[in-house]
Prior knowledge:
This protein is mainly α. It is built from 15 helices and 3 strands. Among the domains are: 1-45; 171-406, Up-down Bundle (Receptor-associated Protein), CATH 1.20.81.30. Helix content is 74%, strand content 5%. It has a 3-stranded antiparallel sheet. α7 runs antiparallel to α8 (210-245), α7 runs parallel beside α15 (349-405) and α10 packs antiparallel against α11 (289-299).
Amino acid sequence: MPVYEYQALDAQGKKRKGIVEADGLTQARSRLRASGLYPVSFKESRAKKSGGESWLSFSLFNSVSAEEIFVVTRQLATLLGAGIPVDAALSSLSEQTGNAAMKKVLGQIKTEVNEGKTLAQAMGSHGKVFSPIFVNMVRAGEESGSLGVVLDRLADFSEKQQDLRGKVKAALYYPIFMAVIGTAILAVLITYVVPNITQIFDEMDQVLPLPTLLLIRFSSLLQQYWWAMAILAVLLFFVARSLVASPSGRYYWDSIKLKIPLVGPVLHKIILARFASTMANLNRSGVEFMTSMRIVRTLVNNVRIAAVIDEATELIGKGKSMTVALAASEWFPPMFVQLIAAGEQSGKLDDMLDKAASAYERDVEAAVKGMTSLLEPLMITVMGLAVGSIVVSILLPIFEMNQMIR
């Protein structure tokens, strides 16, 4: 779905800027009017459209490394906090960075700033590097005169997201390693050991038990038609990929992912944590609330949940509270909604969103650890049974031969 940068006027006649995701300009105008804004102009953004990230991606940025952006953001916040002008700070960072792509981007941003653009406008023209949340928070920081503080928040936010992503990846490394090793062992046994043993049985002209016959047939089939199986696997992969890439297929697949045992609840909590953390940072930085909702829906990386956020945004645009809008969907659990309600009633919505994000991040870490502790013995058991079945199938004829000799 395309993302448009817009300029609009609010009810007081003040100019507003932001982004809106829509199927076309007509829908974009309708969404702005539903938010109480009068659209003035639109420009299709070069920022990455929603749905393009992997389910484990927590990066705010679409190219260059997240670590590189994090470092640059933190350094820029420090320099601006020390009173150094934006162009001088960008020049200093461009000279310091060892990343050629980042150096080029910083140089281009400095040129655009010197030509009269704001920092947010300059960053917005590099949509492959800076995401909508980054650009909108910088814009809000410039308008409020607290750019250094906002950049610090961005760096903190990025650091937390990277930390959570790192913990999830680290927890999955061992099970993936075990799966690769186990598959390699099975492949060697079936394609090398079994054929050699089969030759011995053929020479002895012995009647083989059923498990051994099945193993030999499977090994022979794999050796003769491995290329056909490989082609079939590749074809199935591309067919599945094309189906998932379609709007209806993506919606169906994203719905299924949330219902997969063990994995689904973790994905759901990751989305809730990202939603809460992003909303807290955007609101605290002064980004207009409806704009924040539209930005968040592009970051959840799940079309099913994005549709729910769209519905909630429409309800909020009609005057409903955030609590009522989110409670209308089963995808926002009672605890999450209660924290939002407490935040709205106390006037501390940002703090409650932070608490919700922290709670679900802890839940994700605990769930991943629990899933890993369950997967490890399960994988060992499955691999043991597979290897054991092959070994038993090979040994059965030998045992029968010994009995015949006796």
